[in-house]
Amino acid sequence: MALLEEPDFGTPKRETEKTVTVQINGQTITVPEGTSVMRAASELGQDIPKLCATDMLNAWGSCRMCLVEIEGVRGTPASCTTPVREGMNVRTQTPRLEKIRRGVMELYISDHPLDCLTCAANGDCELQDTAGEVGLRDVRYGFQGEKHFAEAAEPKDESNPYFHFDSSKCIVCSRCVRACEEVQGTFALTIQGRGFDSKVSAGAATDDFFGSECVSCGACVQACPTATLMEKSVYDHGVPNRSVLTTCAYCGVGCSFKAEMQGDQVVRMVPYKDGGANEGHSCVKGRFAWGYATHKDRITTPMIRDKITDPWRKVSWDEAIAFAADRFKSIQQKYGKGSIGGITSSRCTNEEVFVVQKMIRAAFGNNNVDTCARVCHSPTGYGLKTTFGTSAGTQNFKSVEKADVILVIGANPTDGHPVFASRMKKRLRAGAKLIVADPRKIDLVRSPHVAANHHLQLRPGTNVALMNALAHVVVTEGLVDEEFVAERCEEADFTRWRAFVAEARNAPEALSEKIGVDPETIREAARLYATGKNAAIYYGLGVTEHSQGSTMVMAMANLAMATGNIGREGVGVNPLRGQNNVQGSCDMGSFPHELPGYRHVADTLVRGTFEADWGVPLSAEPGLRIPNMFAAALDGSFRGLFVQGEDIAQSDPNTHHVTAALESMDCIVVQDLFLNETAAFAQVFLPGTSFLEKDGTFTNAERRINRVRPVMKEQSGLSEWEVVARLARAMGYDMHYNAASEIMDEIARLTPTFSGVNFARLDREGSLQWPVNDKAPNGTPTMHVSGFVRGKGRFMITEYVPTEERTNRSFPLILTTGRILSQYNVGAQTRRTENSRWHETDVLEIHPFDAEERGIADGDRVSIQSRKGAVSLPAQISERMPQGVVYTTFHHPVSGANVITTEFSDWATNCPEYKVTAVQIVRSNQPSDWQVAHEEIRRTNYRTEPEPAE
Amino acid sequence: MSDDIKELIRMANQIATFFQSYPEEEAVTGTAEHIRDFWTSAMRARLGRYASDNGNGVHPLVMQAMGRLQQAA
Ligand code: SF4
Ligand code: SF4
Ligand code: SF4
Ligand code: FES
Fold first, then answer.
1. What value does the mean pLDDT of chain A take?
2. Chain A residue whose CA is closest to B9
3. In this predicted structure, what is the pLDDT of residue A755?
4. Cβ contact B11–A547 (<8 Å)
């Protein structure tokens, strides 16, 4: 499509049922009460010139460009700050207004450089446009303003890798300052000085953008009407001339973007205001970190090799696919049908995931399919399905605007889910209360204009104890929503649960020592959650990645049901998903016991519909989960693996165990963008496609199905689903599609919750939240509104069971892991962008006391030793950590964080216990043995045969 | 004891530990159904054999659950 320019109505939409009818230039319009005159006019198609107003921000009224005349009102009020009143009669264009506007414009231009033709914003500048609209023809004040002289201008601030700040072009409209406050919630910018001397500043006088609090979300750049804040890519390439609407491929927020292009080159990614998940906002990853898609490390030719120590040989698609199929077939001949399997990826589209699981079930003839969600959110699926009846979060993101109490557990949204965090912070600034349960003092605990009412700084591994203690208070202090429970929940289960949590051993006083939080604080938090009107739980991997991950999810569901906080806006139990398509990959039947739509493989009726559609008998036996695959590889019964876009060698726990398993297999096929850590153990490499090349859908954490559209053609020449279909055919199963939309049609045909979904509809309506079917033709923003999906809500007994991983004298500290804003997961993408400037290496965060006891200074290299292995990293002394707990991220392969994590896992789903590992920390000045061996593997297992001379 | 069987015992015991909060009959059913629904037949068979041969270190609920699964098979 041509360049998509979204309308800017000048001020935000008001959400109220009450309406007001007004006349503007003789035309009548009815709008919600509180709407500005500017917006009402704009909705009538009669835009009023403006400079300081934009509809992402509240009106400010500083530029005086938008003046109007209103019958019976003296003077010329600013239309952006004037709300409509019933019967108002407005004129937006009169000789008087024209004159005033022109005069205002003259003043602006008298102090603005006149290099329009060579300015980076030429063609994309609101100042230019407005000058045109008001008919500016001359400037009576001359052009003597100091900004006209290049030599007088301050040097541009080029410190941010993605945008520059050129103060000479600034008109001090303060849109940037307000965007940083209102949209992003970081408060990094201020206006310093007064009058003509006033200017925008990133914090202290000496700060540049990079050194400031700025998190590079880009909101200010988008808000800026001039070239002052401008993407460097636009400066370099010029303004884009076409747009493609698509979805970010990083985190589970699933932001919608306009990819703005010149030809097949992306010039910039601009968040889309109509995107349901992000409503026009973005973070540094989606907005700026897309350069990896064309990075020189991308492999775009298929490659094969006999042994993992051989160099890679580039071959044709046909040869690579035949090679993989032959190996898989001969393994099955020798070791049986169940000796191969595959892993799907939460980074791929629903369509790509669906075909991989179909290949495994139909062409491999077994259910040995699992997904990387095993290691992150599988307990969410189990826990929510058991209690509510669906493996998904209950709300849309917008719901947070109605929450009065927000309980954040084991999630760090400002780093992990930044755009949602901004929406949450907005609500918190407007007065919602906040409870944070996290061992670390995450940013939300205290950041500008946001402070947690309670920070429950619990010991890692005691989540369930904390939930039981909170529930104890609810039950024993009469805070149960009896009516809700009686009407909506299974009575016998509730009665049993009530008796269980009421036991004295679950009282805050009894558990406080284990949890590490003062009992009165727990009581106050419980009271706040239960009595603060709409209470919503948001949680992340700090909940799931524990040996009691599933129990914890059920414990949260219990608490929400007991207090009636489910089934309407502003409440609920909401998982914040890690990767972009975790929800989708689970929905698509990536688990070894479930067909698409979470239906057990043993269900004859359901299996029958798949068998009829696919034309093959399917196995009724659950297949291997990822950890079972590794165990079976080591015992010799599992020998071939197809890995879709996933780096199990880096992201799965206990690296020694994983790599030993991978080494023992006969054929590993990796489909990915880069030669990742797993590829070191592969015999076949099938080049994948980046999100900029994909055609399909992603489903975000709010069950929202968003379209992903290609902006350029596949670098490798084939779509990923086509490669999988060809491999399936080479294995003897006839799989064929002409387009990705046909795959979605098949998904809709076979999955009741998706039955109303198709590409044409998504293209028309933007996005849909499943279930979308006859019962919910327009999708389901809020789940369980008039009843639970399972019928009645089920309370589960959630006994606290401490993990088997214990600290002792040799391993006295607990290591927990997480992520940071600028990097994404194993870092394969973000490490190949300028985002790395914010996070060049992983570090170990340690409390000052623990550091001092070990003679460790900030920046020292330390060795982290667990019962499983050791790695070394630089230490960072940090007050955010409680004593006894250390923390690291796993964005860089060389850090080998999973060399030290253990094989302990969630009881119900085997989701690994990443969040609790007993370790010792000592000073060390060298890399660990594993790190040395890892370097060696990088030297031997990644070689490519030299290209034959032409 | 091989690492493999140790791992299966640990997993099964963890499942039983969750269900042991329930009355015995429900706990046995819960444990048995969980193992039936989520484990491969090879894993079930291996643990089943161990349970009937020896059963050292296996949670009593798992012992009962395996018995029930074997009957059903
Ligand atoms: S990029 Fe975002 S965080 Fe940085 S100054 Fe602009 S609005 Fe604020
Ligand atoms: S930098 Fe841009 S948005 Fe900020 S005050 Fe200047 S012109 Fe306005
Ligand atoms: S990484 Fe997440 S929050 Fe950031 S732009 Fe992408 S989807 Fe949005
Ligand atoms: S747009 Fe209304 S005062 Fe600036």
1. 90
2. A907
3. 93
4. no
Q: Which of A85-94, A224-233, A383-392, A900-909 has the lowest mean pLDDT?
A: A900-909
Inter-axis angle of helices A350-358 and A720-730, nearest 10: 10
Task: Encode A518-550: b = buried (16+ Cβ within 10 Å), e = exposed.
Answer: ebebbbbbbebbbebebbbbbbbbbbbbbbbbb
Q: Is A579 in contact with A347 (CB distance < 8 Å)?
A: yes
- When pLDDT is averaged across residues A511-523 and rounded to a whole number, the result is 96
Report pLDDT for A137: 78
Whole-number pLDDT of residue A950? 46
CB–CB of B21 and A799 under 8 A? yes
CB atoms within 10 A of CB A504: 9
Hey, which of A226, A230, A231 would you mutate to test ligand 2's pocket, going by the most ligand atoms within 8 Å of its Cβ? Answer: A226
Any B CB within 8 A of A338 CB:
yes
CATH number given to A813-940: 2.40.40.20
- Interchain contact, B38 vs A907, CB within 8 Å: no
Provide CB contacts within 8 A for A528, sequence distance 6+. A405, A433, A435, A453, A454
For residue A256 and ligand 3, the question of a CB distance below 6 A is answered with no
Residues 546-585 of A with CB under 8 A from B: 547, 551
Cβ contacts below 8 Å, chain A against chain B, sum to 49
Residue A672 pLDDT class (50, 70, 90 cuts): very high
The domain limits of chain A are: 1-93, 303-376+582-769, 378-575, 813-940
Three-class SS of residue A144? coil
End-to-end CA distance of chain B: 26
For the domain covering A378-575, report its CATH number. 3.40.228.10
- Residue A448: pLDDT over 90: no
- Which chain A residues are Cβ-neighbours of B65 within 8 angstroms? none
- In the predicted model, is pLDDT for residue A206 greater than 80? no
pLDDT over threshold 70, residue A419: yes
What was the pLDDT predicted at A204? 63
Q: Which CATH number is associated with domain A303-376+582-769? A: 3.40.50.740
Residue nearest to atom 7 of ligand 1 (CA): A180
If interface means Cβ-Cβ distance under 8 Å, which residues of chain B face chain A? 4, 7, 10-11, 14-15, 17-18, 20-22, 34, 37-43
Closest Cα in chain B, distance from residue A628 (Å): 9
* Cα A223–chain centre separation: 22
Whether the model clears a pTM of 0.95, i.e. scores above it, the answer is no
Q: What is the pLDDT of residues A340-399, one digit of tens each?
A: 999 999 889 999 999 999 999 999 999 999 987 776 778 888 899 999 988 888 999 999
Which residue CA neighbors atom 4 of ligand 1 most closely? A214
Q: How far apart are alpha carbons A350 and A713 in whole angstroms?
A: 19
ipTM of this model?
A: 0.94
Whether A217 lines ligand 3, by a CB cut-off of 6 Å, is no
Which atom of ligand 3 is nearest to A250's Cα? Answer: 1
Residue A701 to residue A581: CA distance in whole angstroms: 8
- Note the pLDDT tens digit of each residue in A543-597: 888 889 999 999 999 999 999 999 999 999 999 877 889 889 899 999 999 999 9
Residue whose CA lies nearest to ligand 3 atom number 6: A286
B23 contacts in chain A (CB < 8 Å): none
User: Which pLDDT score is estimated for A453?
Assistant: 95
To which residue do tokens 């207004």 refer? A97
Residue in the structure block whose two tokens are 């004040």: A141
Of the candidate ranges A154-168, A343-357, A527-541, A727-741, the one whose mean pLDDT is the lowest: A154-168
Q: 3-class SS at A115?
A: coil
Is the CB–ligand 4 distance for residue A61 below 6 Å? Answer: yes
Q: What is the CATH number of domain A1-93?
A: 3.10.20.740
Torsion of CA A75, A81, A85, A89, to 10 degrees: 40
